[in-house]
Amino acid sequence: MPRKHSAADAPLRLDNQICFAVYSAAHAFNRVYKPLLDRLGLTYPQYLVMLVLWERDDVPVKDIGEKLFLDSGTLTPLLKRLEAAHLVRRTRSSEDERQVLIALTPQGHALKEKARAVPQSILAASDCSVSELVAMKDEIVALRDRLNAVIGE
Amino acid sequence: MPRKHSAADAPLRLDNQICFAVYSAAHAFNRVYKPLLDRLGLTYPQYLVMLVLWERDDVPVKDIGEKLFLDSGTLTPLLKRLEAAHLVRRTRSSEDERQVLIALTPQGHALKEKARAVPQSILAASDCSVSELVAMKDEIVALRDRLNAVIGE
DNA sequence: TCACATTTAATTGTTCGCAATTGAATGTGC
DNA sequence: GCACATTCAATTGCGAACAATTAAATGTGA
């Protein structure tokens, strides 16, 4: 009985890797977002930063980094590009000169209205009910948090 | 009755975005993989390429790209680094001179044995049963494929 | 107070990821 | 057979992502 694959190799097969499922799904999302975000003049990570700021404004870089799991090496140049696009302002905190506070400009605030069209386009592209997506999201977040807990050890 | 958030803003809230769940889970996986892959001298995308090659060897760049959803702009420099690490060889196909065939070196083949320890470490880190992970993986792959179908339109 | 550790952003260097372009090889339609 | 389109990898340029380091501001203990 010839076999194409050895059973011992199963754990190393690409199609058996949940990490690749997640990795490739993230890229697929990125590609779906791209044309939508192009109209806003944003990249996907920039869009995430704007989501954070639309919820709360005038926050230090560190707070944004904690919410998005990104560090200053990623955020500093990204925020400078958002500043160059006149969407945010970067100012040193007067209370703690180490912190740089990120505030939305009027244009940054205004972009929120244009962004409202994005989530519904994504929902349509995922071709899935809201409840299914919410359930999946919660599972993935739970997995992510368990992984992050291991890293923190 | 004061509300912190408007209901109209719910679709734009970071915690409601499945894409962010996927995005941040991908990064969490990356961080868990890093110390494991450091021992193999591989980055995560390089590990994915090696997974493909351990299944089948002597394939054109295009085939690897189709399996991983990556293009030559990503793969060409990555494969050159794997070649510099003596894990693969790159040769022009004699039948079709446009194609570059990627073959494993003996060291590339040998690395597979060292890599067998990786999946079980990941399984432990995800703190989850195999059947749960398989179910999640299948859901995520189905979502990814629906997203990719939209892009292909 | 003063030495010392901690916190915070910024910087540097390496590796992805992709769009757009180039150039060579191949396939095709007439 | 020959113009033409197509295929494939390589290249270029830009924007992440992160490790490691730097530098300044702040906090802490003796």
From TrEMBL, chains A, B:
GO terms for molecular function: DNA binding; DNA-binding transcription factor activity. It is found in: Cytoplasm. InterPro entries: HTH_MarR-typ (IPR000835), MarR/SlyA-like (IPR039422), Transc_reg_Sar_Rot_HTH (IPR055166), WH-like_DNA-bd_sf (IPR036388), WH_DNA-bd_sf (IPR036390). Gene3D superfamilies: Winged helix-like DNA-binding domain superfamily/Winged helix DNA-binding domain (1.10.10.10). It comes from the Bacteria. Transmembrane segments: none annotated. Residues 15-152 form the HTH marR-type domain. One of its GO terms (biological process) is response to stress. The keyword RNA-binding does not apply. GO terms for cellular component: cytoplasm. The keyword DNA-binding applies. Keywords: Cytoplasm, DNA-binding, Transcription, Transcription regulation. This is MarR family transcriptional regulator.
